[in-house]
Amino acid sequence: MTYGRRGTAKKGVNAATHTIIYSGNTPAPLSGEHLTRRPIRITPFGPQHKLDTASRLNYAKVYTIEFNIKVYFVGVIHDDSKDRLLKDFAEVQGLQLAPEYHSNNEPPSQPTHKMLDSAYQMASRKFFKKGRVFSTPHPEVAGPSTTESNEITLDPYHNKLHTKIRRFIVVRDMSSHCLCVPVNTYGGRENYTAKPQDQRQLFPAVGNWDKSRIAKKELPLVVEASGADVDYSLASVDFTRILTIKHYALVKKIGRIDKLGLPLLEECFRNALGMPLELDDTNVSQFWKQIFIILAIKLQFSALAQAADIVPQSQPLCLCSPQHTSSGMA
């Protein structure tokens, strides 16, 4: 709470039970504040969760939250502040900490969920252009061979979901979402479910890279994020699995497919779905030429028919040879 952005300087607030809680850089105490406890830092899950500089943590006020209450996660206490938080809370509440909480040891009971890296943020729509490569937490129904118990959760219908950080390549951007193909390593194992022609390898497009690799149906990846780890010997793109990623998903940029590789990306995407390639300039010219010829013939015939007044509007046109005509009149 901020106490009207006055912090503990507000009348009636006991500064001895409060401390600064912040995200980002440590803010200075407000005018009139006399705080003795060290600040507590949090790591927000997104820029929209940045704390106000007047935010204060009250160790004396405790709330009970039932597990069946719907909550919205905004962040997590930073590792540097966990021990301080526990010790100051115990002191204000008059509690004795258990031995395992002293020193810098971690509590014996760890949460089963993982905290998302702060680098994952909501991106603008311009981010999701064709060829963009990014990672995001993405759930899938767990298969029988899935063993990572800390990544398994149950949905309301008791289906097991396997949620992990997955990498994707944008192949289509829509109004509120984008269509993507996944980049997989399959845990270092060969994938026996996908056809070889539907899998494409990635290779690093660094410096004067070998352009002939595109002819070998390999996709050039330009890594733009520092520290991005891509195992090119295992990473392959599965074009048979088209997945929808919403624009509001928390994403982390990896890089992009080089512009020289975008035609191959489009070709692989369409081939996997059994779709014809888009018309190129030559095909477009031939297409419109045929359309114009057909229209010209129809217009010419219509003009001749009207001039000769041989085709009544209410009767169908019948083209007969002279022989058939004479026999029909006989």
Q: Would you mind describing this structure in some detail?
A:
The chain is an alpha+beta fold and 330 residues long. The protein contains 5 helices and 14 strands. The protein has helices at 82-93, 212-215, 262-273, 281-308, 322-329; strands at 18-22, 40-44, 56-58, 75-77, 121-122, 132-141, 152-154, 160-173, 177-184, 199-204, 219-223, 236-238, 243-246, 250-257. A 7-stranded mixed β-barrel has the order 6-8-9-12-10-11-14. A 4-stranded mixed beta sheet has the order 3-1-2-4. The longest helix is centred in the last third of the chain and has 28 residues, at 281-308.
The total count of helices amounts to 5
Average pLDDT over all residues: 79
- Order of strands side by side in the largest beta sheet? 6-8-9-12-10-11-14
Radius of gyration, taken over Cα atoms and rounded to an integer in Å: 33 Å
Largest sheet: 7 strands, mixed, barrel
Which characteristics define this entry?
alpha+beta; disordered C terminus; 14 strands; seven-stranded mixed barrel; four-stranded mixed sheet; 5 helices; 330 residues; elongated
